[in-house]
Amino acid sequence: MRSVLPILAVLLAIVAVWYIAAIRMNSTWTYDQAARAETEVSFAEVVVDTMAQERPVLPAPHQVAVGLWEGLFGQKFTSKRSLVYHGWITLSATLVGFAIGTGLGILLAVGIVHNRAMDLSVMPWAIASQTIPILAIAPMVIVVLASVGVTGLLPKAVISAYLSFFPVVVGMVKGLRSPDRMQLDLLKTYNASRWAAFWKLRLPASMPYLFASLKVSMAASLVGAIVGELPAGATSGLGARLLSGSYYGQTIQIWAALFAAAILAAGLVIVIGAIEKVALRRMGMVR
Amino acid sequence: MTWLWGAILFWLGAWGLNAWAANQPFARTRAGKLAIPALFGVTLLVLWEGIVRGLDVPGVILPAPSVIWGTITTSVPTLWQDFVQTILKGGLSGYVIGCGAAIATAIAIDRSPFLQKGLLPVGNFVAALPIVGIAPILVMWFGFDWQSKAAVVVVMVFFPVLVNTVAGLAATDRMQRDLMATYSASYWQTLMKLRLPAAMPFIFNGLKIATTLALIGAIVAEFFGSPIKGMGFRISTAVGQLALDMVWAEIAVAALAGSAFYGLVALIEKGVTFWHPSQRARS
Amino acid sequence: MKDTVATARPVIEAKGLGLTFQTNDGPVHALTDVNLTIGKGEFVSFIGPSGCGKTTFLRCIAALEHPTQGALTVNGTSPDAARQARAYGYVFQAAGLYPWRTIAGNVKLPLEIMGYSKAEQNERVRKVLSLVDLDGFGKKFPWQLSGGMQQRASIARALAFDADILLMDEPFGALDEIVRDRLNEELLKLWAATGKTIGFVTHSIPEAVYLSTRIVVMSPRPGRITDVIESTLPKERPLEIRDSREFIEIAHRVREGLRAGHGDEV
Amino acid sequence: MKDTVATARPVIEAKGLGLTFQTNDGPVHALTDVNLTIGKGEFVSFIGPSGCGKTTFLRCIAALEHPTQGALTVNGTSPDAARQARAYGYVFQAAGLYPWRTIAGNVKLPLEIMGYSKAEQNERVRKVLSLVDLDGFGKKFPWQLSGGMQQRASIARALAFDADILLMDEPFGALDEIVRDRLNEELLKLWAATGKTIGFVTHSIPEAVYLSTRIVVMSPRPGRITDVIESTLPKERPLEIRDSREFIEIAHRVREGLRAGHGDEV
Amino acid sequence: ADDVTLQLKWVTQAQFAGYYVAKDKGFYEEEGLNVTILPGGPDIAPTQVIAGGGADVMIDWMPSALAAREKGLPLVNIAQPFKSSGMMLTCLKETGVTGPEDFKGKTLGVWFFGNEYPFLSWMATLGIPTTGGADGVEVLKQGFNVDPLLQKQAACISTMTYNEYWQVIDAGISPDDLVTFKYQDEGVATMEDGLYVLEGNLQDQAFEDKMVRFVRASMKGWKWAEENPDEAAMIVLDNDETGAQTETHQKRMMGEIAKLTAGSNGALDPADYERTVATLLAGGSDPVISKAPEGAWTHQITDKALQ
Ligand SMILES: Nc1ncnc2c1ncn2[C@@H]1O[C@H](COP(=O)(O)OP(=O)(O)OP(=O)(O)O)[C@@H](O)[C@H]1O
Ligand SMILES: Nc1ncnc2c1ncn2[C@@H]1O[C@H](COP(=O)(O)OP(=O)(O)OP(=O)(O)O)[C@@H](O)[C@H]1O
Ligand SMILES: Cc1ncc(C[n+]2csc(CCO)c2C)c(N)n1
Ligand SMILES: [Mg+2]
Ligand SMILES: [Mg+2]
């Protein structure tokens, strides 16, 4: 309860600012329309109009809420107009991509920490890989994968994995290197193998870093899945909803899809946070 | 096919060489730290060239590195113009504003657990909004030129830096804080002398992640409307024209600029957080 | 345990003090029913088996921990208020130097915070570093120093500014006898010259006897005061005093007290 | 300094050993020209002012640091080879417990690594925890223990497995005299029973004299051995031996040696 | 049944009604074909998909296909269901644009990604540089929608008669407030929405046969759609996986599309082709194609399909 109050307060403030911004940004259109129709409008009329435009520059919060509600609960979950349906499509690609991405990220980090050649050569290229605009190569990835017969969920998951492995690599490398000299020396005196040092020292020491990275990487996975949906022929998924909304100037639809995506991401991050809490508590790392 | 096998052989050989070189004293010198990743890169390029030639991959699917290099050398003015538009104007200004705002916000909400408890989850939520959704909106709000790209970058880098800074500000150990308490140091003194220095490794973590985000953000935002220059513009039109060599030329510039940007921030980090075990271990 | 009243104006007064930590497997009673009054200018040592609550008690005085029972006043006000008045110099059980500051920078820290002038800062840093025998190490970073040197740097840090109350948690634990003797002498000189009130945790009986006006013996589980021994030694104390009958007698009493406290568990 | 030869089969042999650290403001000569031979089953204490290189020397023996000059062999092989043969138990100057393991888990760590059976692990953990007087604390996490208790846990960790050579860097620095006495006795018993070779850093002259067969006095800048004192005390040592003439004489010699080493700087 | 994959140029909408109708009404099935229709999108270059082997046949605008041909991707037009061009430039009257001569100094929104060629040719014909300044036009890469016009970020934007134009109207701007320039009327029309395949495949007897049946069925679909526009729109709606399209919009779009397909039996009119090539070659400094292409179209398929 204590943690809900501040969130509510902040949300309230945001909604208030949002309404004011909506009135300001949407009023231009109202005034323009009035000018075109050669009529005068009072401020009250403007406010009313800005709350209910069909293509607002910034939809009012309640418009988005209604759009979201309709999308989520306004129809059967299996309907193509349901955000639940599209959310599920995106979610499945996200989860597969996240699994591939984090797995790869952890493997790479382990390699980088244990192998000097990898440390020196892989890291700069992992960084370079992230500066490649994914939106540019996503279509090519889809095309290339399609030409070798891979279609459907997997191409999207590949793109999502591409975005999500990097935060894991960076965080895990830092985490696996976080043990201090004494902690490492202790194991040296036991002549512990690298394997034992990894399991008993480096891995546990890296847990807080891992979880922090997983949260970032989960969000990245979702973005990846959405990006992957754009060139997949704008068929289904939240990305497709965003795109078609954008294509038809359906601002409210965009915002609803956007919020659905964010809710999904937030939910996934919360799940990771919960796992983190349990894991770290069991490891005695939260006091 | 000879190309393909040749490339694979070269790759194996170079990997062996690299693995050997990495364990030589040479690898600890400055030259070694550049040469080894460079050799790795060359290996990748040779492999790429070999695959494209060996398997006869059409140029409209994936051009060979040699072809891309040819395009780079002949289109320097275009590439430079796009670089200035996207990276210097859109990316860099957004990065500076976004990171600055994030650090300032972290410090601002640091005093109020109430705001932290309220803002962090909400911020978390906002950060989860995919850029592909935000970019068109910001283009609608801030116009077609680089300002809207900077806005996208601000939104993208803000949260990672905020979260890292907040985590960093909390990263002092009990004794360090108690020490300040016994001096009855003011909030600002504790901040400047203890918490910010202790937070630096975390802040730089955020700043490093933000470099790559800034680049992607600036480029991707151009897909949603732009003047007729910029790296994102060039990439998206070039794909439509099947000028894949140009696409990859731009990607090469982006990767190079991104790595340089990241390297610069990492270098500054090394200077600022020289005391952190993760920096000391390798020096 | 009856209260022990000091003759001088009381600086620290604990009445029925208790502190319980809540841990994942049950509460830990770190302190129970501690009654103690420390007068201005006293030098009080705390001695007792490890885990008996010495650190916890010092932390309560410095307002770093808040008692769960009883009352505690410092200079007649709450510990928090005293802290705000910058009444404390505290030497922690571990050195706790900031890794991003050089040794000189670490010693300078409280001076910066308390707004000393640049010149004064440098002068004081020089003086205290030389006091703890670290001249020439000012520019090194903490991790480049041995454990004992780090501990000495942290003592220098607490001595660099003029706090009325000095709380020291095993400051000399990591030092050899010679340096320890020297620092003991220096500390006594400083105490005599400044009239500071000193709370001092140690494990060394001779050290406690040599330094203190009173020795508080504690015992664990729950942490409490089992004995308070007044020192009858004169204020002027050459090192040789340690061979005097009186000294040996007091040391014996302390040892007995300690042993009694240990009885239940060793 | 001439080499001191031990009578028993040599376990540790240092010849002209030197170690220089490169730091941001110039090289630090932590050790120079150290010659020392330690025989099997010896108990050698190292004493000297802080920063004189005691820790550094112990770290060289354990192959945690590599000398820049001279030769060092352990069991006739290189320190690295000895480490690979798991010849060492090491107690660090700071406790260095892993925060994500409970106290029992920390003590179990070397046992897990060396592949002891589960039952054996539990049995040994129980035994050594009780040896250092920490029964009942097995399930606590390190940060829930006082400084001295953490240090005892780290001693237990080093004793849990059977290393031939035990290197202890001020293991009892944070303990009070009573516990310290008890652990001193236990250590002597353990040594007598197992015939381990022990290298022991301490700042306490009585402790060094009480425990050792030989006492190595070191002095700083550059770290070197200034004196090696053979103990003539019998192997069987009740605590009361500390009041014997012989004991006091040896202690006096050590103090003199220390003072001489200090001469140049105090 | 033989498998055929068709790559669309854009998202599922009435612009492609003929193919959806043919699939839905079983025309393809009757011809022994199993057709997969891949929707396009803003990032999908149909030319790239077909080059990568992801599709057998694709829909594209002729300028884009000819440009790709010059880049070395041998595309051939096998059928042309669209007779006329639906592309226009739509301007806000209040910006003062009344004719092409007023473009100078204005900002114009243009689609890129292979759709910019007709515009560039037109400007070249008019002799207006596209590099900005007082004598030229400032070009914006227009995004997915008509916002630049509504937000007044551009004086004119590209629209299609059947789609974006109506979005402007739906947004609340009356046709009276707009000025439109149809490429068709300006004499710079280029062919839109033709069917293209890779030249090499046409040598293959089986492939040719497949395409013959495909074109035949597709044209049957188009003619059905022209006659039953509302039902065709509903079929499109059923096939829209995003669930974003609306009935009114698609029905109206179908009505407009019917006007563009009217007059085509599916065979390319060589005169239209020549006009398109001439327009493209007229481009000034930055020609879309540098020389008249050879063998870029064939009646090989339509001749057999439409007999
Ligand atoms: N990593 C390092 N880098 C630079 N100098 C170091 C480093 N470690 C130790 N030194 C220096 O080496 C010298 C010896 O240090 P060492 O830790 O061996 O001393 P010590 O005898 O163990 O002291 P103490 O009793 O205080 O623990 C000191 O002057 C110290 O400053
Ligand atoms: N944060 C904490 N949470 C739970 N228990 C604690 C905490 N801090 C201290 N304790 C417990 O309180 C008791 C007293 O601890 P304290 O640190 O005061 O002992 P001490 O007398 O200073 O011992 P030492 O001489 O070993 O430093 C111990 O049993 C310890 O386990
Ligand atoms: C990025 C982008 N590129 C091209 C078009 C234009 N476009 C391609 S096909 C087609 C048919 C009409 O609906 C249209 C308009 C666009 N809108 N957005
Ligand atoms: Mg303590
Ligand atoms: Mg040491």
Provide structural commentary.
Chains C, D: Keywords: ATP-binding, Nucleotide-binding, Transport. Chains C, D: Residues 12-245 form the ABC transporter domain. Chains C, D: Pfam families: ABC_tran (PF00005). Chains C, D: InterPro entries: AAA+_ATPase (IPR003593), ABC_transporter-like_ATP-bd (IPR003439), ABC_transporter-like_CS (IPR017871), ABC_transporter_ATP-bind (IPR050166), P-loop_NTPase (IPR027417). The complex is a heteropentamer, with 1 copy of chain A (287 residues), 1 copy of chain B (283 residues), 2 copies of chain C (266 residues) and 1 copy of chain E (307 residues). Chain A has 287 residues and is an all-alpha fold. Chain A is 79% helix and 0% strand. Chain A is built from 11 helices and no strands. The radius of gyration of chain A is 24 Å and the shape is elongated. Chain C has helices spanning 54-61, 79-84, 103-113, 118-131, 147-159, 177-194, 205-211, 245-262, and strands at residues 10-23, 26-39, 43-47, 69-74, 88-91, 165-169, 197-201, 214-219, 224-230. In chain C, the strands form 2 sheets. In chain C, strands 5-6-7-3-8-9 form a 6-stranded mixed sheet, sandwiched between helices. In chain C, helix 3 (103-113) runs parallel beside helix 5 and helix 7 (205-211) packs across helix 8. In chain C, a hairpin with a 4-residue loop joins strand 8 (214-219) and strand 9. Chain C has 2 domains: 10-87 and 164-263, P-loop containing nucleotide triphosphate hydrolases (Rossmann fold), CATH 3.40.50; 98-162, no CATH class. Chain E has helices at residues 17-24, 27-30, 46-51, 62-70, 117-126, 147-150, 164-170, 199-202, 205-227, 229-239, 247-261, 270-281, 300-305; strands at 2-7, 33-38, 57-60, 75-79, 87-92, 107-110, 138-141, 156-160, 178-182, 194-198. Chain E is built from 13 helices and 10 strands. By secondary structure, chain E is of the alpha/beta class. Strand 1 (226-227) of chain B pairs antiparallel with strand 7 of chain E, so a sheet runs across the interface. The complex binds adenosine-5'-triphosphate (ATP) (2 copies), ligand VIB and magnesium ion (2 copies). One magnesium ion binds at residues 54-55, 93, 169 of chain D.
